[in-house]
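**User:** Here is a favour to ask of a fellow structure person. Please take any protein you like and set down a full record of it. No explanation is needed for now; the record alone will do.

**Assistant:**
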Amino acid sequence: MLIVVLLVLTGLVFPTWTPAIKGENSISMLEQIEINGAGHEVMIRGSDRRNPIIIFVHGGPGCSEIPYVRKYQDLLEKNFTIVHYDQRGSGKSYHFFEDYSNLSTGLLVDDLLELTDYVKEMLGQEKVLLIGHSFGTYIGMKAAAKAPEKFVAYIGIGQVANQVQSELDSLDYAIGQAKRAGHVKDAERLELLRGPIKRGEQSTPRDMIRKYGGAARLINDNRDYYTGFLFNREYNLLDVSFVHGHGAI
């Protein structure tokens, strides 16, 4: 029992970092930076800091993607300098005694714009590509609309648009895949949700979307999410507790 307690305590306070990248001009940093009056955890990685910048806006709200993205961006790191950050109040940007009563999407947009200025100055680069994922597409779109001169391009992954129609599309996909797999009960259960989803009262169950391959292409995003938080070097157990206690999945 004592060993278990010691392991947990070690996991809570274990130092965090992001692994180095070989190269004279490479960059690999994980730091807390003050942006727009609040501490933000920022991870920047790339084989050559002179490459164009990508700023990645995570989904959620509150779902940091820092702990597992290295698995998927190794090729991108060769041609871009990639910036990930935990949004205000999310993950390692959550501060226990900070007042978040004024937190809004408008404030998150302003944070993103100031972060953009910060990394451009720090890296001496003008070219910034903005990528949003899921909820992050809303923040990214608003930022690009508010200050289009700051970005050379915007890319949306899981773009927020007509939410009700998107949920209905997910529902139809999951029902179709369940029927093809011969899982009649799953298909029937899902069909019962059509009315509430049409009225905007409910979403298509995410476990069903994942079960039938509709969450992410060719990867197990759910497994990667949890194993990344538990075993990758960018987060310790204390950080994980903040993610799951304050607005994660």
Summary: The longest helix spans residues 105-123.
